[in-house]
Amino acid sequence: MSGHNRWSKIKRKKEAMGGTKGVLFTKLIREITVAARFGGGDPDHNSRLRTAILAAREANMPGDSIKRAVLKGTGDLEGVSYEELLYEGYGPGGVALVLEILTDNKNRSAGDVRSLFIKYGGSMAVSGAVAFLFDRKGVMLVPVGPSEDQVMELALDAGAEDIVSDGDGGFEIRTEPTAMNGVHKALEGKLAVGAPKLVYLPKTSVHVEGDTAGKVLKLIEALEENDDVQRVHANFEIDEATLASLSQ
Predict the structure, then answer these.
(1) Shared domain check, 55 and 13
(2) Which is it for strands 206-207 and 236-237: parallel, antiparallel or unpaired?
(3) Same structural domain for residues 216 and 238?
(4) Which domain holds residue 94?
(5) 21, 63, 148, 174: which is deepest, by most CB within 10 A?
(6) Domain count of the chain?
(7) Residue 35 CB: number of other CB atoms within 10 A?
């Protein structure tokens, strides 16, 4: 079992607190629409759509909203066409960031994101300058309950690559991207397992503390509040003492 990643823990806590439901639902609806557009409206034959719908249900999105998003993606309802982009950049302290973007206006998105980087002490980078510092992986969370041995045996038998403690008594199961949905399906009914998602996991981490840590968190929070930014991935670590001081 590899070491616990505090950034993953921070992300989960932020997602649990969630910002406003409106911002979260906007991002989920875009993902469902794009998934249906490229792979069709049947989640049984469209793994990306299945993943998006599971995430929406986990966030308690109404079923009617999910259905409308699918129909917009398939063209049965009028909808917006979104473009997928990947932005890269650096935050305070040399922290590397990868941003997944879904936008109907890439010029607007680029300008908005660049302004946020500048405002919070970071800078955008050229394509490929940062992404190589991350591995693309599938992840899914197992809440507190089963033991490490139970989770490891079931997950590895299902085709998972790694199991990591989440620091709160639960576990994060990691997979290769192409195996993610198969592992999730194999575990359903055997483990209480959260919605799967594709992420960028950092190969190495940058430790930040004090004012720098606060600036990094403010930058990420601002980026995540932008409707066009679907997900923010970063490679920093913050110790528990610094987290506690920042939360006061």
Answers:
(1) yes
(2) parallel
(3) yes
(4) 83-132+204-242
(5) 174
(6) 3
(7) 23
DSSP bridge partners of 100: 86, 231
Written as one letter, the residue type at 85 is L
- pLDDT of 104-161, one tens digit each? 999 999 999 999 999 999 999 999 999 999 999 999 999 888 888 999 999 999 999 9
Helix, strand or coil, per DSSP, at residue 233: strand
Residue 185 has pLDDT above 80, yes or no: yes
Cα–Cα distance measured from residue 34 to residue 31, given in angstroms and rounded to the nearest whole number: 5
- Tokens 């941003």 correspond to 99
Q: Are both 62 and 100 inside the same structural domain?
A: no
Output the domain CATH number for residue 175.
Answer: 3.30.70.980
Per 3-state DSSP, the chain is made up of helix, strand and coil in percentages (nearest 5) of 50, 20, 30
Distance between first and last Cα of the chain: 32
Distance of CA 173 to the CA centre of its chain: 14
Q: Give the side-chain half-sphere CA count within 13 A for 174.
A: 18
DSSP 58-103: HTT--HHHHHHHHHHHHTSS-----EEEEEEEE-GGG-EEEEEEEE
pTM: 0.88
Q: Give a yes or no: residue 143 inside a domain.
A: yes
**230 and 197 within one domain:** no
